């Protein structure tokens, strides 16, 4: 009899563990049809990873993690999804991102919003800093803007189709998918002890070798891109730059420097004579050299002049950091800052962007929250690499006693 009870308890325990930590839905319900980027986070996989790391670090077992008088997200009245869905809508600003979650207990949820100091705006709409949300029946739409709330609600209410999870994520902790018509390109997201990797079909050895070479210098920025990658990146800012200028290769090196910026204002003395007043402030400015290559430099020069990107002092004004100079040669152009000239680093014959964390840059940004400042201060470097159809992004953090999932 005792054995049967033990077997039954064990069986129920296994079912509970499977249900809580492994069983997941197979459909994505709350993504509008006009979404062009979809980020999925496998909540249960991340939970298992968190618990595993938590068990392996006894120093965290008795740590107070939150105010006892404040409800946790599990107690907020919101249903914790198997897959957290964050999406971007076509033809909206790149800074606008949205998500939809289900509400199980509206009273608890409203109380949670009050505890978190969300401010009521309109009917069922709330805001805290740059986070907006609206209660839409049994759902909550969350975003970095409230501009698309109505269209998202209408789209979800009218849409009958559910997307299969397997189309967007396969075993990784998360994924990011770029949706264009019937074509979808999906990149996996993995969280490790000291880094976050985003990749698609990657042979990591080639990119790790490139990273090791880039780490041998101390430059803030290193980049080398071909025409395809230039088009991909410039499309976020200006869709005409890459195609109209016919640039097919870019190589750049940059460092940061703290300089004194002179501020001139005018006032009047006691006799109402105008007097000039000078004051100084310290600002962060880059020193850089950029090489642009193309097959027809003269045509590109005409394009730059048409766009009024070259002024009378022969400065390239499309780059906001002055002073600089632009020189044309047989292969293209060289743009370099003139305050403190630096040398272009050796060519690696690849497609990459390497940005090293710099304390000067972080100290110059005053709008970051404490959590955001902690996140960025922990970064060591960001790397983007591309070879044929392989893509690799790595956010490398400084090594600490705790793994990343326990630091925030």
Explain what the structure shows:
This protein has 408 residues and is an alpha+beta fold. Helices cover 25% and strands 36% of the residues. It has ten helices and 20 strands. The strands form two sheets. It has an 18-stranded antiparallel β-sheet, with helices on both faces. It has a two-stranded antiparallel ribbon with strand order 1-9. A hairpin with a 2-residue loop joins strand 10 (174-180) and strand 11. The longest helix has 20 residues, at 2-21. The chain is globular and about 65 Å long. Residues 16-23 have low confidence and may be disordered.
Blueprint (SSEs and pairs):
Layout: H1 2-21, E1 27-28, E2 35-42, H2 43-55, E3 83-89, E4 98-102, H3 106-115, E5 119-120, E6 125-128, E7 131-136, E8 139-143, H4 149-158, E9 163-164, E10 174-180, E11 183-191, E12 195-200, H5 204-214, E13 221-226, H6 227-234, H7 241-245, E14 247-268, E15 274-294, H8 297-306, E16 324-328, E17 332-337, E18 351-356, H9 359-364, H10 370-377, E19 379-387, E20 390-397
Antiparallel strand pairs: 1-9, 2-3, 2-10, 3-4, 4-8, 5-6, 6-7, 7-8, 10-11, 11-12, 12-20, 13-14, 13-18, 14-15, 15-17, 16-17, 18-19, 19-20
Keywords:
10 helices, 25% helix, two-stranded antiparallel ribbon, alpha+beta, globular, 2 domains, 408 residues
Radius of gyration: 26 Å
Tell me the distance between the termini. Answer: 48 Å
Helix fraction by DSSP (H/I, runs of at least 4): 10-25%
Number of strands: 20
